[in-house]
């Protein structure tokens, strides 16, 4: 509030009306359907190692990505046990579903069956060193 001097020397209190809204703080009101986007800053981000043993394990990988976690996915056990065809199908399916969520999948070439780095949509991956 402000105080304004009157002509007679007395003071008059005056309250400035101010409507507070989301736009005043740089936020927009959520009006869309479904769940609003949760900022990665709302909770800690985890980097988790995950073993992809069967094609059904893809669902647990996807739920971790939806939680904005970063995953290092090992699949060497599946490759040894199931053969290349099952592995190829599983990795293709994983890559497609992660990209549908806006995430990315990157192969880290270090050994025979290198791990995959799987990241949510707010993480940028630089694929080659500069």
Give the tags.
about 130 residues; alpha+beta; Translation Initiation Factor IF3; four-stranded mixed sheet
Textual characterization of the structure:
The structure is a single chain. The chain is α+β, with helices and mostly antiparallel strands and 130 residues long. The chain has a domain of 79 residues: 2-Layer Sandwich (Translation Initiation Factor IF3), CATH 3.30.110. Helix content is 26%, strand content 20%. It is built from two helices and six strands. Strands 3-4-6-5 form a four-stranded mixed beta sheet, with helices on one face. Strands 1-2 form a two-stranded antiparallel ribbon. The radius of gyration is 26 Å and the shape is globular.
CATH class of the domain at 41-119: Alpha Beta
Between the first and last Cα atoms, what is the distance in angstroms? 56 Å
Alpha-beta classification: alpha+beta
What order do the helices and strands follow?
EEEHEHEE
CATH architecture of the domain at 41-119: 2-Layer Sandwich
CATH superfamily of the domain at 41-119: SepF-like protein
| Count of helical regions | 2
Helix content: 25-40%
What is the CATH fold-level name of the domain at 41-119? Translation Initiation Factor IF3
Major β-sheet profile = 4 strands, mixed
Q: Mean pLDDT, rounded to whole units?
A: 74
Strand arrangement, largest sheet? 3-4-6-5
Q: Which overall shape is indicated by the principal axes computed on the Cα atoms?
A: globular
The count of strands amounts to 6
| Proportion of residues in extended strands | 15-25%
Radius of gyration: 26 Å
Unreliable residue runs: 1-6, 11-30
């Amino acid at each position: 509030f402000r105080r304004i001097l009157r002509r007679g020397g007395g003071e008059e209190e005056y309250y400035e009306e101010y409507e507070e809204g989301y736009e005043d703080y740089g936020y927009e009101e959520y009006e869309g359907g479904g769940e609003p986007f949760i900022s990665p800053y709302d909770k800690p981000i985890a980097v988790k190692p995950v073993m992809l043993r069967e094609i059904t394990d893809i669902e647990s990988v996807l739920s971790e990505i939806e939680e904005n976690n970063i995953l290092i996915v090992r699949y060497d056990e599946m490759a040894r046990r199931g053969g290349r065809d099952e592995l190829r199908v599983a990795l293709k399916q994983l890559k497609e579903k992660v990209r549908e969520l806006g995430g990315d999948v990157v192969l880290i070439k270090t050994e025979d069956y290198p791990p995959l780095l799987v990241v949510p949509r707010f993480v940028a991956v630089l694929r080659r060193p500069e």
